[in-house]
């Protein structure tokens, strides 16, 4: 009977639940922390104390990386906010459509290194642009890559990736198009905040020019 009990496997989940429910267990039996050993890929067997310290160090390192990442994102967003504010005020001083297009293009190219920035009016007789309008920006935005023919029609050459948005119907069929040489710069999961803000401003200004 005793031999059978000794050979019976322990339920590891019960042990796990017990230790979780009794976090002071090793305080009551501190000698176990030193006596028990766990495998380590580089150092062989180590004590539970050493293993716990290592796990804590790894967690602290992970948290530091997450904090650094969040700070970088915050810095990036602050840069975009300041740029967008300055660009908006400059655009509001434009006297005609040509000047607005120049300010918009130069500002975005200088700040982000985009290869092309265009405001494109879609005419009914232009079947290629009308197709892009229907298939790419019907939902409001498109971030990603284009076919070779679409790139050449919108920008006059092949590009890496694009951000497309249509202006409001009050302005007719107008596409606000930005291109990057980098095929991965614009992608479907990216945030549209910058473009939505610029689109609202352009929607407000174009009827007045």
Structural notes for this entry:
The chain is an alpha+beta fold. It is built from 9 helices and 6 strands. The strands form 2 sheets. It has a 4-stranded antiparallel sheet with strand order 3-6-5-4, covered by helices on one side. A two-stranded antiparallel sheet has the order 1-2. A hairpin with a 3-residue loop joins β1 (37-40) and β2. The protein starts with a helix and ends with a helix.
Topology:
Layout: H1 2-7, H2 12-21, H3 25-28, H4 31-35, E1 37-40, E2 44-47, H5 48-92, H6 97-112, E3 116-121, H7 127-136, E4 141-144, H8 148-155, E5 161-166, E6 174-180, H9 193-205
Antiparallel strand pairs: 1-2, 3-6, 4-5, 5-6
Number of strands: 6
CATH architecture type: 2-Layer Sandwich
What would CATH call the class?
Alpha Beta
- Corresponding CATH superfamily: GAF domain
> What is the overall silhouette?
elongated
Structural class: alpha+beta
Protein name: DUF484 family protein
InterPro entries: DUF484 (IPR007435), GAF-like_dom_sf (IPR029016)
Keywords: Coiled coil
Organism: Shewanella livingstonensis
Please name the defining characteristics of this protein.
four-stranded antiparallel beta sheet, Beta-Lactamase, alpha+beta, DUF484 family protein, DUF484, coiled coil, 6 strands, two-stranded antiparallel ribbon, 56% helix
């Amino acid at each position: 009977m005793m031999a059978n009990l000794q050979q019976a496997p322990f339920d590891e989940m019960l042990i796990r639940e017990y230790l979780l429910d009794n976090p002071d267990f090793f305080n009551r039996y501190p000698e176990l922390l030193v006596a028990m050993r766990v495998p380590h890929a580089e150092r062989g067997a180590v004590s539970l104390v050493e293993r716990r310290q290592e796990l804590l160090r790894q967690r602290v390192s992970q948290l530091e990386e997450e904090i650094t990442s969040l700070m970088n994102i915050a810095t990036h967003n602050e840069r975009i906010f300041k740029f967008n504010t300055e660009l908006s005020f400059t655009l509001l001083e434009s006297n005609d459509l040509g000047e607005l297009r120049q300010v918009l293009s130069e500002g975005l190219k200088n700040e982000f290194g985009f290869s092309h920035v265009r405001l494109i009016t879609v005419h009914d007789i232009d079947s290629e642009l009308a197709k892009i309008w229907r298939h790419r920006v019907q939902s409001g935005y498109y971030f990603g890559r284009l076919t070779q023919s679409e790139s050449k029609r919108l920008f006059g050459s092949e590009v890496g990736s694009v951000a497309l948005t249509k202006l409001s119907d009050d302005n007719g069929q107008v596409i606000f198009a930005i291109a990057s040489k980098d095929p991965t710069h614009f992608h479907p999961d990216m945030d549209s905040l910058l473009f939505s803000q610029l689109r609202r401003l352009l929607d407000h200004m174009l009827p007045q020019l």
